[in-house]
C-alpha cells in the first residue's frame, strides 16, 4: 500500500503573504502604539510635576529587565532548539505506515526559521513583559543600605533580607523557568524528529538527545541545590506557627534547617549523576539520583519535621517556642515602631467629686475640646449648607485638623468645596461644560468640631448644624486663604482643559469667568499634543475644538493620592489625604509609607485587613502581607497648581535611604519642612491601625504568657454599627478618632489619634491607646492599661453603647427615636480619659427620610462612671453627669449667650405673652400671631416635619418682632412671661 505523503501548510500566494504582513503590522501598531501613547502621556505628566527622573529611571530599568530576562529565557530556548534540531537523527525512524508526527515534522521543515526564531521570540516577549514589573527589586539591590542590626540566627545584617535575598530568590525563580522551558523545548524537538521514541520499555533516546536532556536536567538540579542554600534564610519568615507568630520555629531550626543543608548536598550529587548520565548509554544513574532526591525530600524535608513537631514540640510547645517567640516580639516591635511605647496603669474609675473634676485643669482641657461633629456623617450636611451650586461637592468623609483662631487652638472639621462634574444636570453636561467651563472648586470650609448652632441663633430656626468658617472667592474667613480655587482634589476624577487667551472657566455666580494662570497642566496648544490627547482620551473634540488655543493646558491625574503615588511609586499611600491651609495656600497632605515583606521574625500582617474598619469614603489598602512599615515621607500637593513635594520625615529609615539612592533629589530633607506645614501634620491613620492591631498582642513581653494568648486584646467592633454591641461581632472594627485631649502623662492638651482596645473575646475595656501629633511630641505612643479582672473592670464601647440605648431617657424619647419620618444615626463614640476615669461621648444625629435631607445633631450622650447624660446640648449632658457648672467648660455658641442648642424649641415651654398695660389693635394682632405660630410649631413637631418646624419658627420670630414694635409705639414696658426655650422637641 502506498505511503500517504506528509501534509503541510498550504503554499500562500504573494498577495496573501502581503495581506498577512499588513494585518500583522496593524495589530502590532495597535498593541505597541497604545503602549507608546500611554508612555508619552506619562512622560509629559512627569515633566509637569518635575519628576521626570523618576519616570526615566523606571523606564530604563523596565526596558533593561525586559530585554535581559527576555534574552535569557528566549535565547536559552533558541539555543536548546538549535542544538536539538542539528543533532536530530539523519533518518527518522517511522513507527508505522501512518506516522502521526509526519505532518508536523513536514510543516516545521518547510518553515524552520519561522519556528526557530518565532517561538523563542514569543516566549521572550512573554517572559520580558512579566519580568519588567519587578523593577523595584533590582533597584533596591543596587542601592541597598545597611540596617546596622543583625538577625539572631545567622548574624547577617537585616539589609540582606530586605534588599539582597528577595532579588536572589527572583533570579533563582527565573533560572528555574528558563531551564524548564529549554528542557521541554528540547524534549519536544527530539520527539518530533525521532531522537526520543516512546516505543519499547521505558522509551528510547538517541545519544545527542540523552546528552542534551541530561545536561539540562543537571543544570536544573544545580540551581535546585543553590535554592536549598538560600531557603535556609527564608526560614526566618516561616509561617509554620501563624497566626500566633511569624518566624523560624523550633522545628524549623532543629529539623528543617539541617534538612536544607543535607538536601543541598544530595541535590549536588544528583546533578553530578545527571552530568555523568549524559555520557553513558543507560539512564539508571540519573534515575537513581532523582529517586534519592525525591525520597530524601519526603523523609528529611517533610516527614522528619512533622514527626518532631508532633511528638516533641507539641507536648512542650510553650517551652520549646519560648526563645523563638522572644525573637518575634523583639523583631515585631522594631519593625513596626513599637519599641518605645509608654505604658501606664490606669484605674478607669475615679474618687474625685464633680467639683474636683470641674476644677481639674487636665479634665477641663479634655472636656472643653470634646468633638460633637462626626466627619463620616456630615458630608451631606456640608453639601446642602455650603455646597452652593449643583456642580460643587465634598468628599464622603470629611477631615479633622486643628487651627488657631482668635488665639484659641481647637479641632476643626475641614474640607474643600470641589468641582463635581457628576453633579451637572443634563443641560450642563456638554463636553465643553464638563472639561472647559466647570474646571475647579471654590473654597476651604471649616467648622469647629465641638460647636453647633442653636435654633434661636439660626435664621431658619433650625439648630444642630455646624458653625461654618468659609474662605472662598466671595469671603475670607478666619482661616484665610489667598488662592481658594481647587483644581486638584479627591473629586477631580476627570481631565480639565484650562488657560488659553480668553477666560472661559466658571468662577462663582458673582464673578466673571476665569482664565487659569498657574503652572499646573500640560501644554495642549500644539497639534501634535492635541492629537495625542485626543487618542489617549478617545475624544475627538480635543482635536477639533477651536476653543483650545495658545496657552491652553490639560490637567489629568488630579487626585492628590494618585499624584503622589505616581511621583513616588515606591511608597504605600495612606488612604485618607486631608487639606490644610499653609501660609494662605491650600495644600493636600498625603502620608507615605515604606514597607517590607521580609523582615526576619517580624509578624506578617495583612495590610488591607488591619486597616479596614467601618469608615467609608477612604481608599482601602491592598490586602498584601507586610512585616515592616515606616511613615517615612510626608507629601504635599498644591490644590491650585498640583505641585507635588516629598519630605523625608524619618531620615533614619534604611528603606527610605535605599529609595533616595534610586531616585536622588526627589525627596527633600526634613529640615526643609516649614513650621507652618509641620503644625498640620497628623499621625497617619493607616499606620495607627496597623500598630494598634499589633499592640493587642505585642504589649506582652513574656513569651510563655504570649503563647497562652490569655492577656491579648482586641480591636472592638464599631458599636454604632449593627451587631457592634455583641461579643464576637461580625460588624466592622471601630475606627480610631482624632481628638484634642490631655492624656495622663501629658503636660498639655494635644491633637492625637486614639482608640479603645477590649479584652480578648470580651466586651470590657483593656486599654486606651493614643499617639500624639504635636510637633514637639510627634509619634509618641501612650497606652493606658486598665484593670482586667474582678469588679474593677471598666465597660468597653459595646457595653456603653448598649447602656446608651437602654437608658430610660433614650427609650422614652419616642419623638426622636420612634418617628417614622426620621432616621436616627449614632455618631462616633469617643473614649476620653478624664479625672482618673473614662468619659464616653456620642453625638446623635437625625435625618428626615427625604432625598434632600441631611443629618442634624439632635442629642448628645455622655457617660462617666455609672452616670449617663442625655440632653440636646453637650453642656447640659455634662451637667447631668457631673453636676451643674461642668457644662461651662464646653464651647459656647459663636455669639455667646446660651449654651449651644441642638434642636428647635417646643411649644410646651412657650406661651403667648400677655399684652398687659395699654392695649392696641396692633398689639392684639401681634399676640394672636404669636399664638398661631406656636400652634403651627406644635403641629409641626408632632408630625415630625422639620421643614414645617422651620416655617413655624420663622412665623414666631416675625410675630415676636411685630409685638415688640407694637409695644414701642404704645410705650408699654410689658414683656412676655416666657420665651421659647430649646428643650429638644425634635
Key descriptive features of the protein:
42% helix, 986 residues, alpha+beta, disordered C terminus, 6-stranded mixed β-sheet, globular
Brief description of this entry?
The chain is of the alpha+beta class and 986 residues long.
Describe the structure.
Helix 2 (52-86) runs antiparallel to helix 4, helix 2 (52-86) packs across helix 5 (135-142) and helix 6 (158-192) packs antiparallel against helix 7. The protein is globular. With 986 residues, it is α+β, with helices and mostly antiparallel strands. Helices cover 42% and strands 16% of the residues. 47% of the residues are buried.
Give the helix/strand layout.
Elements: H1 14-49, H2 52-86, H3 102-110, H4 112-131, H5 135-142, H6 158-192, E1 196-197, E2 204-205, H7 207-234, H8 250-277, H9 284-313, H10 317-320, H11 322-335, E3 342-345, H12 354-359, H13 361-367, H14 379-386, E4 392-393, E5 399-405, E6 408-416, E7 418-419, H15 431-437, E8 441-442, E9 444-448, E10 469-471, E11 485-486, E12 496-499, E13 522-523, H16 527-536, H17 541-544, E14 552-555, H18 560-567, E15 572-573, E16 578-582, E17 585-596, E18 605-606, H19 607-610, E19 625-626, E20 628-638, E21 644-648, H20 654-662, E22 667-668, H21 675-678, H22 685-698, H23 703-708, E23 713-714, E24 737-741, E25 750-759, E26 765-772, E27 781-785, H24 797-806, H25 808-812, H26 814-817, E28 822-826, E29 830-834, E30 837-848, E31 856-864, E32 867-871, H27 874-882, H28 921-943, H29 946-970
Parallel strand pairs: 3-27, 21-22
Antiparallel strand pairs: 1-2, 4-7, 5-6, 6-9, 8-11, 9-10, 12-14, 13-14, 15-17, 16-17, 17-20, 18-19, 20-21, 23-25, 24-25, 25-26, 26-27, 28-30, 29-30, 30-31, 31-32
Helix pairs in contact: 1-2, 1-16, 2-4, 2-5, 2-6, 5-6, 6-7, 7-8, 8-9, 28-29
Amino acid at each position: 500500500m502506498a505511503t500517504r505523503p506528509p501534509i503541510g501548510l498550504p503554499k500562500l500566494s504573494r498577495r496573501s503573504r502581503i495581506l498577512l504582513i499588513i494585518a500583522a503590522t496593524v495589530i502590532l501598531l495597535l498593541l505597541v502604539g497604545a503602549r507608546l501613547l500611554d508612555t508619552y502621556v506619562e512622560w509629559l505628566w512627569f515633566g509637569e510635576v518635575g519628576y521626570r527622573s523618576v519616570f526615566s529611571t523606571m523606564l530604563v530599568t523596565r526596558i533593561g529587565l525586559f530585554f535581559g530576562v527576555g534574552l535569557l529565557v528566549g535565547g536559552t530556548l533558541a539555543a536548546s532548539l538549535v542544538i536539538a534540531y542539528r543533532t536530530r537523527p539523519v533518518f527518522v525512524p517511522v513507527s508505522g505506515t501512518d506516522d502521526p508526527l509526519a505532518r508536523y515534522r513536514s510543516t516545521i521543515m518547510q518553515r524552520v526559521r519561522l519556528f526557530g526564531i518565532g517561538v523563542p521570540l514569543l516566549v521572550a516577549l512573554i517572559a520580558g513583559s512579566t519580568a519588567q514589573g519587578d523593577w523595584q527589586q533590582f533597584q533596591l539591590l543596587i542601592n541597598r543600605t545597611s540596617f546596622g542590626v543583625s538577625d539572631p540566627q545567622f548574624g547577617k545584617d537585616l539589609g540582606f533580607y530586605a534588599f539582597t535575598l528577595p532579588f536572589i530568590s527572583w533570579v533563582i525563580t527565573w533560572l528555574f523557568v528558563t531551564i524548564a522551558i529549554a528542557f521541554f523545548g528540547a524534549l519536544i524537538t527530539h520527539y518530533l524528529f525521532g531522537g526520543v521514541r516512546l516505543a519499547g520499555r521505558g522509551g528510547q533516546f538517541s545519544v545527542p538527545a540523552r546528552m542534551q536532556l541530561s545536561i539540562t536536567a543537571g543544570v536544573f538540579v544545580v540551581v535546585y541545590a543553590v535554592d536549598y542554600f538560600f531557603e535556609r534564610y527564608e526560614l526566618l519568615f516561616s509561617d509554620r506557627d501563624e497566626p500566633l507568630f511569624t518566624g523560624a520555629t523550633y522545628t524549623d531550626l532543629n529539623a528543617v534547617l539541617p534538612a536544607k543543608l543535607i538536601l543541598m548536598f544530595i541535590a549536588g550529587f544528583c546533578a553530578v549523576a545527571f552530568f555523568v548520565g549524559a555520557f553513558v548509554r543507560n539512564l539508571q544513574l540519573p534515575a537513581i539520583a532523582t529517586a534519592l532526591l525525591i525520597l530524601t525530600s519526603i523523609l528529611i524535608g517533610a516527614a522528619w519535621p512533622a514527626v518532631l513537631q508532633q511528638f516533641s514540640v507539641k507536648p512542650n510547645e510553650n517551652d520549646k517556642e519560648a526563645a523563638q517567640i522572644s525573637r518575634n516580639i523583639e523583631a515585631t516591635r522594631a519593625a513596626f515602631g513599637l519599641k518605645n511605647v509608654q505604658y501606664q496603669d490606669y484605674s478607669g474609675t475615679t474618687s474625685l467629686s464633680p467639683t474636683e473634676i470641674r476644677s481639674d485643669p487636665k479634665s477641663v482641657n479634655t472636656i472643653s475640646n470634646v468633638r460633637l461633629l462626626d466627619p463620616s456623617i456630615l458630608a451631606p450636611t456640608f453639601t446642602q449648607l455650603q455646597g452652593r451650586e449643583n456642580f460643587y461637592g465634598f468628599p464622603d468623609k470629611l477631615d479633622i485638623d486643628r487651627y488657631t483662631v482668635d488665639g484659641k487652638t481647637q479641632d476643626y472639621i475641614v474640607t474643600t468645596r470641589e468641582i463635581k462634574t457628576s453633579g451637572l444636570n443634563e443641560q450642563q453636561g456638554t463636553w465643553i461644560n464638563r472639561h472647559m467651563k466647570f474646571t475647579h472648586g471654590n473654597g476651604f470650609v471649616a467648622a469647629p468640631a465641638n460647636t453647633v448652632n442653636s435654633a434661636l441663633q439660626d435664621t431658619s430656626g433650625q439648630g444642630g448644624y455646624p458653625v461654618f468658617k468659609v474662605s472662598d472667592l466671595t469671603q475670607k474667613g478666619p482661616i484665610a486663604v489667598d488662592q481658594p480655587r481647587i483644581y486638584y482634589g479627591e473629586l477631580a476624577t476627570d481631565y480639565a482643559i484650562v488657560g488659553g487667551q480668553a477666560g472661559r472657566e466658571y468662577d462663582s455666580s458673582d464673578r466673571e469667568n476665569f482664565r487659569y494662570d498657574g503652572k499646573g497642566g500640560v501644554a495642549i496648544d500644539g497639534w501634535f499634543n492635541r492629537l495625542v490627547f485626543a487618542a489617549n482620551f478617545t475624544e475627538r473634540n480635543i482635536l477639533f475644538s477651536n476653543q483650545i488655543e495658545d496657552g491652553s493646558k490639560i490637567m489629568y491625574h488630579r487626585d492628590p493620592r494618585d499624584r503622589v503615588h505616581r511621583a513616588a511609586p515606591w511608597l504605600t499611600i495612606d488612604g485618607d489625604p486631608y487639606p490644610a491651609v499653609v501660609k494662605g495656600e491650600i495644600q493636600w497632605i498625603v502620608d507615605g509609607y515604606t514597607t517590607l515583606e521580609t523582615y526576619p521574625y517580624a509578624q506578617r500582617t495583612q495590610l488591607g485587613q488591619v486597616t479596614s474598619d467601618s469608615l467609608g469614603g477612604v481608599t482601602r489598602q491592598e490586602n498584601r502581607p507586610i512585616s515592616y512599615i515606616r511613615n517615612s515621607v510626608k507629601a504635599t500637593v498644591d490644590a491650585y497648581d498640583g505641585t507635588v513635594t516629598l519630605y523625608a520625615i524619618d531620615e533614619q529609615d534604611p528603606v527610605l535611604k535605599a529609595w533616595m539612592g534610586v531616585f536622588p533629589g526627589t525627596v527633600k530633607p526634613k529640615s526643609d519642612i516649614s513650621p507652618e506645614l509641620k503644625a498640620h501634620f497628623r499621625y497617619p491613620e493607616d499606620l495607627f491601625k496597623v500598630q494598634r492591631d499589633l499592640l493587642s498582642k505585642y504589649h506582652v513581653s513574656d513569651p510563655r504568657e504570649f503563647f497562652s494568648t490569655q492577656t491579648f486584646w482586641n480591636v472592638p467592633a464599631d458599636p454604632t454599627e449593627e451587631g457592634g454591641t455583641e461579643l464576637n461581632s461580625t460588624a466592622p472594627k471601630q475606627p480610631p478618632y482624632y481628638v484634642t485631649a490631655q492624656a495622663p502623662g501629658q503636660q498639655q492638651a494635644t491633637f492625637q489619634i486614639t482608640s479603645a482596645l477590649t479584652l480578648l473575646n470580651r466586651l470590657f475595656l483593656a486599654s486606651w491607646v493614643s499617639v500624639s501629633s504635636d510637633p514637639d511630641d510627634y509619634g509618641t505612643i501612650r497606652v493606658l492599661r486598665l484593670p482586667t479582672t474582678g469588679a474593677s473592670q471598666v465597660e468597653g464601647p459595646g457595653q456603653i453603647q448598649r447602656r446608651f440605648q437602654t437608658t430610660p431617657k433614650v427609650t422614652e424619647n419616642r419623638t426622636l427615636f420612634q418617628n417614622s419620618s426620621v432616621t436616627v444615626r449614632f455618631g462616633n463614640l469617643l473614649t476620653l480619659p478624664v479625672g482618673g476615669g473614662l468619659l464616653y461621648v456620642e453625638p446623635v444625629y437625625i435625618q428626615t427620610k427625604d432625598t434632600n435631607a441631611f443629618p442634624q445633631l439632635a442629642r448628645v450622650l455622655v457617660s462617666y462612671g455609672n452616670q449617663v447624660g442625655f440632653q440636646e446640648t453637650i453642656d447640659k449632658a455634662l451637667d447631668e453627669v457631673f453636676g451643674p457648672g461642668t457644662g461651662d467648660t464646653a464651647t459656647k455658641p459663636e455669639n455667646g449667650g446660651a449654651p449651644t442648642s441642638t434642636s428647635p424649641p417646643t411649644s410646651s415651654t412657650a406661651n403667648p405673652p400677655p399684652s398687659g398695660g395699654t392695649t392696641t389693635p396692633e398689639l392684639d394682632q401681634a399676640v394672636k400671631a404669636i399664638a398661631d405660630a406656636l400652634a403651627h410649631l406644635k403641629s409641626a413637631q408632632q408630625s415630625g416635619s422639620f421643614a414645617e418646624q422651620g416655617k413655624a419658627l420663622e412665623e414666631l420670630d416675625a410675630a415676636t418682632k411685630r409685638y415688640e414694635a407694637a409695644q414701642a409705639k404704645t410705650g408699654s414696658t410689658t414683656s412676655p412671661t416666657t420665651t421659647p426655650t430649646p428643650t429638644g422637641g425634635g
